[in-house]
Amino acid sequence: MAPALWEAELANVIWMAIRSGLIAPDEGRLRLQLAEGLAIRSVAVSSLWQGALARAVTAGLAVYDTLFVELALRENLSLATFDSKVLKAFPRVAKRPSELLLRK
Q1: DSSP 103
Q2: Which of 6, 45, 98, 67 is nearest to 59 (CA)?
Q3: Is 23 helix (H, G, I), strand (E, B) or coil?
């Protein structure tokens, strides 16, 4: 589960990888197809933005990031991220992916 903007963010990351020559355009399209099969439940941004805005103001982070934090807190889930600012601002919920893989 993720805020619905995850799709646009993923497409943008793939575009940046294509633009910088890390992957070919055909590989980018393949990766988008793979993402479609992940069965990620998209949650409407408008259902999260009030809490995300409050968290962004308090933490000094972008709302783009705190949308994910808000959803994780509401659902009592961990948020997998490499973003050092999110990890520092929300240590209770934000975890490095390697930390989450170690849990059983």
Answers
A1: -
A2: 67
A3: coil
Domain ranges within the chain, ordered by starting residue:
2-41, 44-101
Q: What is the DSSP letter of 46?
A: G
pTM, two decimals, is 0.83
The per-residue pLDDT for range 44-103, each reduced to its tens digit, is 999 999 999 999 999 999 999 999 999 999 999 999 999 999 999 999 999 999 999 866
Extract the runs of DSSP E, i.e. beta strands, from the chain. 2-3, 42-43, 79-80, 94-95
b/e map 5-43, b = 16+ CB within 10 Å = bbeeebeeebeeebeeeebeeeebeebeeeeeeeeeeeb
β 94-95/42-43 pair status: unpaired
What letter represents residue 31's amino acid? R
